């Protein structure tokens, strides 16, 4: 019975993947992609990887989906023209061959992996207790692979700089995206008033339980960013101008604290990002607390888009 | 006692699944946006509600049960709000099948 459910899920997600690629309409393809992300979340749950499932649901399905919907809305005006410019047979064949080649290469690599796969899981699990964190995922992400997590936080900042660099010169330093006006007594404004208090509590809860159960700063920050976006989109509050000092300080504060603690480790424990004996858990908590608001700001601004207008 | 709880779970989750099925049929078969939304929101509200009610005896604690119920309430809130928004959008753009 359970096997049937899993097989059904796998078939469904393959079908959706093909459909998202084959759909001619951009918006339809995006909707297919979001549904694909949600199904992928279910599959991660079935694999008992709840942390990955949460991240996939929040970032893969939710945040990326919202970004793509925004892109599809921008492309709508030119979509008919783009569809009429059908590339030639040679180009399409070349694209198909290239895509099939990449897929085949990936398949060969995955199939050629040794069985059982080389793993550090046992060693990591044996030393989780030394970090004092109950959930092995943050223990690995913030102690054994702290460098990866640091770079991950920084790469998001680079992505934001990339988005901002698309701003026209006259709007540089201004507010991102269009000014949203919704009916102040309408449904969007209502939900933007009711939902954020709940969302902030859920986000903080997911962040806090991350120490011992699935959850963490990325998932929590995504929920906070979503609440912020809801308030911006309902017109209740405008996006902040990107030249504001508090905004820029907030964006870099988390990674800066992370780097500073890394250097403290270099001085006190002999290696960059090493934690002195007995201080692992408090330092991890400090890093998580510092990263969470920065991540929420970064993700929210990433979705808000490039600055488009100076003060009106 | 556990047999009664099991029976309750089976009955309520099956009823929830029926509402999802009916909602999906409605989504595929109804003629315009408004009737399709009508079918879909019934499936969301009652379907999720019944599934949550059915799972309550199995949640293994008051806190977990409360989380399940709050998920239902959040689905109610977001589902009704989003269907209002879609309906308003559809009304402003005029009838289109």
Order of strands across the biggest sheet of chain A? 1-2
Strand content of the residues of chain A, in percent?
under 5%
How many domains make up the 3D coordinates of chain A? 3
User: What separation lies between the terminal Cα atoms of chain A?
Assistant: 61 Å
The number of distinct helices of chain A, counting runs of at least 4 residues, comes to 11
Question: Biggest interface in this structure?
Answer: A-B, 8 and 7 residues
What's the topology here?
The complex is a heterodimer of chains A (312) and B (97).
Chain A: H1 2-22, H2 26-46, H3 50-84, H4 89-111, H5 121-131, H6 136-144, H7 146-164, E1 175-176, H8 187-209, H9 217-233, H10 245-268, H11 280-304, E2 307-309
Antiparallel strand pairs in A: 1-2
Chain B: H1 2-29, H2 33-55, H3 62-93
Helix pairs in contact in B: 1-2, 2-3
General description of the model:
The complex is a heterodimer of chains A (312) and B (97). Chain A has helices at residues 2-22, 26-46, 50-84, 89-111, 121-131, 136-144, 146-164, 187-209, 217-233, 245-268, 280-304, and strands at residues 175-176, 307-309. Chain A has 312 residues and is an all-alpha fold. Chain A folds into 3 domains: 1-85; 90-118; 123-312, no CATH class. A two-stranded antiparallel ribbon of chain A has the order 1-2. In chain A, helix 5 (121-131) crosses helix 6 (136-144). The longest helix of chain A is centred in the N-terminal third of the chain and has 35 residues, at 50-84. Chain A is globular. The mean pLDDT of chain A is 87. Chain B has one domain. Chain B has 97 residues and is an all-alpha fold. Chain B has helices spanning 2-29, 33-55, 62-93. Chain B has 3 helices and no strands. Helices cover 86% and strands 0% of the residues of chain B. The N and C termini of chain B lie far apart (51 Å). The model of chain B has no long low-confidence stretch (mean pLDDT 87).
